[in-house]
Amino acid sequence: MPRxxxxxxxxxxxxxxIAARWAHAADGDWPTRPIRLIVPFSxxxxxxxxxxxxxVQLGRALGSPVVVDNLPGAGGVIAxxxxxxxxxDGYTLLFTTPNHTINPALFPRLxxxxxxxxxxIALVAEIPELLVASxxxxxxxxxGFVAYAKAHPGALDYGSxxxxxxxxxxxxxxxxRLGIKVTxxxxxxxxxxxxxxxxxxxxxxxxxxxxASPHVRSGRLRALAIASARRSALMPDIPTIxxxxxxxxxxxxxxxxxxxxxxPVAIVDRLGAAIARFQDDAAYTTQLRxxxxxxxxxxxxxxxxxxxAELGQWADVVRASHISVE
Length: 326
Known about the structure:
44% of the residues lie in helices and 19% in strands. With 326 residues, the chain is an alpha/beta fold. The chain has two domains: 3-127 and 252-321, D-Maltodextrin-Binding Protein, domain 2, CATH 3.40.190.150; 128-226, D-Maltodextrin-Binding Protein, domain 2 (3-Layer(aba) Sandwich), CATH 3.40.190. Strands 1, 2, 3, 4, 5, 6, 7, 8, 9 and 10 form a ten-stranded mixed β-sheet that branches. Helix 1 runs antiparallel to helix 2 and helix 7 packs across helix 12 (300-321). The longest helix has 22 residues, at 300-321. The protein is globular.
């Protein structure tokens, strides 16, 4: 008997009938039917596209279909709540983003516990944010932006997809660390904010390489700095914010998979192994990189640590910036 399945099987005798059934499912029978991967965003966006590519690969690795179910609403709270209350049998998973770690700071009475009610499986992909400026601005690089903002406090403005969204909180984190004031202009979605930036009605914006790079290449936007720990292979000439003096700063749209808490260890291990396996698939990684998405991987422990760290970070940012979604 394989080591992982033996570990769950030997412990099943002392479990309740329901828990024993889940343990038995992990003892070689799982999966016997399609797995549901819930995505907290509408179909068609970058996160949804990435989730669908990952679902195909995960289904192949497990030998069972993985069906994407889009469940948008309330910044991801609805989808997370659905997974948190689903049976921990490996058949309902959450494909989530930093919304998962931002929401507790915005909604103090969530119907679930962001850490206790989920079992992290692995990170799947990430998109580094890119600080871009309208080509009409007088500064041409990141130091120029900082110098101009310090000389003209509050005169510049930046757009985001809305209050409490990732581009909003990552920009506020940057401004806090730089000690500068730039006025926030919230939009109902990233696309209209990007359009106004291109038109010169905004000064700067935290966007993603996936959506901003075509406009940088056309000259309509200027790339000031990338918010990842290392330079991007897609834009190798653009420095990172960290190397420009903001050590440790990152703004990453990560994507990862969570299961309900108490999902058997053997199922978590099999899911993690399957994800690690398809991260080496050349066709899959090429598709992601062509869309500006970096395939990544992690183990449950590493993913848990990231979630825990971000919960504290975003709570501090929201409190200091007085961010409200009301």
